[in-house]
Amino acid sequence: MSATKCVHRWWIPDAADDPGPMANSVCRRCGARRQFPRSLPRQWSPIRISRKMLAEMNENMRTAERQAQ
Question: Looking at the domain assignment, is residue 40 inside a domain?
Answer without folding.
Answer: yes
